[in-house]
Design a protein that fits this description.
Elements lengths: L4 H6 L4 H31 L12 H33 L6 H6 L5 H25 L3 H29 L1 H11 L5 H22 L1 H8 L9
Helix pairs in contact: 2-3, 2-5, 3-5, 5-6, 6-7, 7-8, 8-9
């Protein structure tokens, strides 16, 4: 659970609520993936005809098609396989759902994939703006996309995560920026201890210890 900040938080939730929370998490990833898929499907199924383009723009056209193909592949797989996860999750019981929660770190793969495909979508948009705009609009459109992305990354990591969700923050900042402010790390450590203590009060210390150590079996009590 310490690998997944979302999973670590859910381990303190009563068994009867944990399954619903897990389902909400997976559904959120699935919904975002489906929306991204709907946005990129048109471009992927009707790629740029690079052979008919100006030779000076051919490289950008090929890059656009390659990024679009990768985006379609990731979003399609993300959407379909998170549906399969929801099918499996629906069959879990209160006696087994904590084991699922404790092992939920593997779901970060699908969560992070939505971040990658979002960046790919911005790259696709930037290439289209460069190819279709003229004059300073060519540079200005790409600059606007880059500035807006940087502003949101800064606000999300240094404002939202730092103040509201430090445990999530240390994971995202290590991944996105390669560094974590000391204050956020200390806040995350305090919050982690608090959540683990709360989980012990809800489920019992032995169950929580088994979950943290990744044991295959958890007490149903």
């Amino acid at each position: 659970p310490l690998f997944s900040p979302t999973g670590m938080g859910m381990i303190a939730i009563p068994r009867e609520d944990a399954q619903d929370r897990m389902m909400q998490w997976v559904c959120s990833v699935n919904l975002v993936s489906a929306l991204l898929l709907s946005g990129v499907a048109g471009s992927a199924l009707a790629p740029l005809d690079v052979a008919a383009m100006d030779p000076a723009d051919a490289t950008l056209g090929n890059v656009f098609n390659a990024v679009t193909a990768a985006n379609l592949a990731i979003t399609t797989c993300n959407t379909v396989f998170t549906v399969y996860v929801m099918f499996a999750l629906a069959g879990e019981t209160q006696s087994s759902v904590l084991r699922v929660v404790a092992s939920s770190g593997c779901m970060v793969f699908y969560e992070v994939s939505t971040f990658f495909v979002s960046i790919m979508l911005l790259i696709m948009c930037s290439i289209q703006m460069w190819l279709r705009c003229t004059g300073w609009f060519k540079h200005g459109s790409v600059l606007i996309i880059a500035v807006v992305f940087c502003v949101f990354v800064y606000h999300f990591n240094f404002i939202v995560l730092s103040r509201m969700f430090p445990v999530n923050g240390i994971h995202w900042m290590k991944f996105a920026l390669g560094m974590v402010p000391r204050a956020m790390m200390e806040a995350a450590q305090r919050q982690s201890v608090s959540k683990i203590m709360e989980a012990g009060a809800v489920h019992g210390e032995e169950v929580v210890r088994a979950a943290i150590e990744g044991l295959p079996e958890l007490s149903p009590d």
